[in-house]
Specification:
The chain is α/β, with parallel strands linked by helices. The chain has nine helices and seven strands. The protein has a seven-stranded mixed beta sheet, with helices on both faces.
């Protein structure tokens, strides 16, 4: 099972479109703006055993960066490792917001290390290792493994999309971007699209070939059973 965790519903829409080119649409469960309780329900052992027969990829986007790091990632690890007895590959997608990749990576490393050392969550404690920028958690009795890959969006997804739409739709009107990505997206949505979802999904096609986009399906496909 592959799981993509991202910051919000826009990210979920965007990466859903990207992954549809690589995985059968019917095998992707996209959960934009669904809430952590819904994710927790799906990860429960009885529900998970059914979900994994229907889907090869789950995309969750909600809560924002702090909650994704502090709570959602922990929920995925604690609710699945050793309980569903399955290998899970997690792509954690965060806006870099101008922060160095190594600093974000260390934040995730430290968070995972605190989880696997917590005896109130695991007994016996899992093994934790790094390999080629992957963070790997293994149940000591062989009941499952979680591999986590951190990937980042340069600046933010909103910045990327606003810049790309202006580049494609109105290259001579770059002043739209002067007041920030959110205001630019609001204007562009009214000008060219019926909804934010349509704008995000349609614009995703212009990013194919960019490394920060292409490495996500590559990881998922390499680690699919």
């Amino acid at each position: 099972m592959n799981i993509i965790l991202c910051e919000g519903k826009r990210d979920a829409w965007f990466f859903h479109e990207i992954m549809k080119d690589h995985i059968d649409f019917n095998c992707i469960l996209c959960m934009p703006d669904s809430g952590m309780s819904k994710l927790q329900e799906l990860l429960g052992s009885s529900c998970f055993n059914y979900i994994k027969t229907q889907y090869s990829l789950l995309i969750y986007g909600d809560n924002g960066k702090p909650i994704i790091i502090e709570k959602v990632l922990q929920r995925v690890v604690v609710d699945t490792l050793g309980k569903v007895k399955d290998d899970i590959n997690v792509v954690l997608i965060l806006d870099d917001d101008g922060i160095n990749y190594n600093d974000l990576y260390k934040t995730i490393f430290d968070k995972l290390q605190s989880i696997v050392r917590d005896k109130s969550k695991f007994n016996p404690l899992p093994y934790f290792e790094e390999n080629n920028n992957l963070l790997i958690l293994k149940h000591p009795k062989g009941r499952g493994c979680i591999t986590i890959k951190l990937t980042t969006v340069p600046t933010s997804l909103e910045d990327q999309i606003a810049n790309k739409i202006v580049e494609v739709k109105c290259p001579h009107n770059s002043k739209i971007l002067e007041n920030g990505a959110e205001k630019a997206l609001k204007y562009l949505r009214k000008e060219y699209y019926e909804s934010y979802e349509e704008m995000i999904r349609q614009s995703s096609t212009w990013f194919k070939g960019e490394n920060w986009v292409d490495n996500i399906p590559t990881f998922c496909l390499l680690n699919s059973s």
